[in-house]
Amino acid sequence: MKSFLDWSAYENAGMGDAYADIPKSGGDFAKAVAVCIGSRQCETLNPKGVMCPSYRVSGDPAFSTGGRVRLLKAALNGELGDLPFTDPQLAEVMDDCVGCKGCKRECENSVDMATIKVEYLAQRQAQQGVRPRTRLFAGLPRHLYRHRRWLPRLLALRNRLPALARLGERLLGIRADRALPQPVAQPFPAEAYASAPVADAGREVVLFVDSFTRHFDPDIAVAARQVLEAAGYRVFIVAAAADDAEPQRPLCCGRTLIANGMIEAARAEARRVLAALEVHVAAGRWVLGLEPACLLALRDEYRMLGLGEAAERLSALSILFEEFIAREHAARRLNLGWQSTDTPLRVLVHGHCHQKAVGAMKSMRKVMKLLPGVDFEFVEAACCGMAGGYGLEVEHAAAADAMAEQALLPALRAEPQARVLANGFSCREQIRLNDGRSAVHLAQLLRDRLAADIG
């Protein structure tokens, strides 16, 4: 078996351990699968945890991280036939993995099922081909650029006409009962940007504007830039390198491609990002991300794409917006003042799974505590159920809705007047579709609370 991702970090995993139960084929990928020790910790229901969303709603051990490992081992041991990655039972449990990264943090042996699923999808597609819906979801950032004149109109028409939505469900398996997100008329500019120079080179940062922020919520990037500049930082926003094959096309981290197992295309996008950020990484500037899944592609998945030292250097400098703000405040470098009001602002905070998986909710809490007059509470919920395109897929409708109903939606319904904060694009969409409120990003809340004489 030839792996699509670089699993060499697991080269020595389980070696010399008679109980490691490493499958017969699969090389280092098999060792990554065998990291699971079968403790069944993934089958517990920790109310403050994320792992494992599909097990939480099904109660079926086959849909836990360990259950997936057991089937993957069977596949790699030749027990599922000559084309094991096309096995229907394996497909069912792997397709219900939402890629939350919860197991990587909460499993005692840090099983990385989210990345294992990417390899599985790549292997399956090599044997079966890529489905049209997969190509559609994976290529969304490119479609938003290439078809920017008519695609928003088509999406608006589909959302208005039930017959068109039903046609999409029948042909592509995209739920007719869910409105698709609508791109804005004016996306965030694709041109490079640099604010006024500052005396301290240590106060220079790169703001990475992902495709979802760019095309659906550009005010988030505007807000983040305003907050950083108000705090005295020089902000760079990068564009494609001059020698890029498509210099006018905005940069994209490749998250949608990675999540759908399209590794070669993702690697090409990653190389574009690495080339554009090369000078900034060489200068030691932090690269700040607004969308958790996209920033963590730079920090985690790029290291699995076989891109060498350049990916390692970028990984070391990639940081979520909230992590950076908390870090700079702790270092007494955050020179900002905040408005206060007589009436407390009630805010419910929902964390993206990837924020929780890397411990970034601690940073969220620290930053929220900076704001006077803000009464906030974290919603103790696992995955919201949207998980990229998962919540829009007709075969996953029941599971996605059940994930949302486990904790998130009841908490929102209990406080209909509260403002909702969610840094993840998928999370905001799930909240909009099911609750009707437009959740804000932390950058927007901070911008709106800046003291008048600073903002």
Automatic annotation (TrEMBL):
4Fe-4S ferredoxin-type domain sequence ranges: 34-110
Keyword Iron: yes
Residue intervals of the Cysteine-rich domain: 348-417
Pfam families: CCG, Fer4_8
UniProt keyword list: 4Fe-4S, Iron, Iron-sulfur, Metal-binding, Repeat
InterPro entries the record matches: 4Fe4S_Fe-S-bd, Cys_rich_dom
Single GO MF descriptor: metal ion binding
Protein's name according to its UniProt entry: Fe-S oxidoreductase
